[in-house]
Specification:
It is a single chain. With about 200 residues, this protein is α+β, with helices and mostly antiparallel strands. It has one domain: TATA-Binding Protein (2-Layer Sandwich). The chain has four helices and eight strands. The chain has an eight-stranded antiparallel beta sheet with strand order 2-3-4-5-1-6-8-7, covered by helices on one side. Strand 2 and strand 3 form a beta hairpin. Helix 2 crosses helix 3. It is globular and about 45 Å long. The two termini are about 20 Å apart.
């Protein structure tokens, strides 16, 4: 792959349903405190009325955070817009780390009273660039070494990677670790993973 894709998206799934309107004041609070390091938080957009849609979006210059309902599965998606530095492996690490940190921040959010819990037994990785990363087996073959190395460091051996969708869709990979770990442990491992 001659050019490294940077529009990576990582999704963690919610364990339990959450009323999207509860997220709006949370995200506004994050903007007021500029609570996400290395991101300039600028706006909140509420799409809760869109069935199976983006839910509530926290817009930053570098990326968007969604508490979304994509494909009928509620979760938190981190969608990178601006290039993060480094190789594809570096960018994969950055996107996972930001998604896990945002999920932990939501779990610890006082306004949500401990109602928010995320699963760590399944993740979705998407690349929003059909030119650099078409949804094909060839793209998966090109990216597999970096992805497998990363998930093996993170979860140990046995993680399965399953490409989803059709050629007209964005590149999408379901990542299913053989060994699920608590979100706190996942964040610690992300801090230790060398890319």
């Amino acid at each position: 792959m001659s050019t490294t894709p940077h529009k990576l998206s990582v999704k963690l799934f919610l364990q339990n349903p959450l009323a999207l309107e509860e997220i709006v004041p949370v995200f506004h609070g994050w903007i007021q405190r500029q609570a996400v390091p290395s991101h300039l938080l600028v706006d909140v957009a509420n799409y809760a009325h869109v069935e199976g849609g983006p839910g509530v979006a926290l817009v930053a210059h570098e990326a968007n955070f969604y508490l979304d309902l994509f494909a009928g599965h509620p979760g938190l998606t981190y969608q990178r817009k601006q290039p993060a530095p480094g190789s594809f492996a570096d960018r994969l690490h950055q996107a996972f780390a930001e998604a896990a940190s945002a999920a932990a921040r939501l779990e610890e959010e006082p306004l949500l009273n401990g109602k928010t819990k995320f699963r760590t037994d399944q993740f979705t990785l998407k690349i929003a660039d059909r030119l650099l990363a078409p949804n094909t087996d060839a793209t998966l073959a090109a990216l597999r070494p970096d992805i497998e190395s990363f998930v093996t460091h993170l979860f140990g051996p046995g993680t399965t990677l399953t490409r989803r969708g059709e050629a007209r869709d964005l590149f999408e990979l379901e990542i299913s670790p053989a060994n699920s770990v608590p979100l706190s442990a996942l964040r610690s491992r992300l801090a230790l993973v060398s890319v």
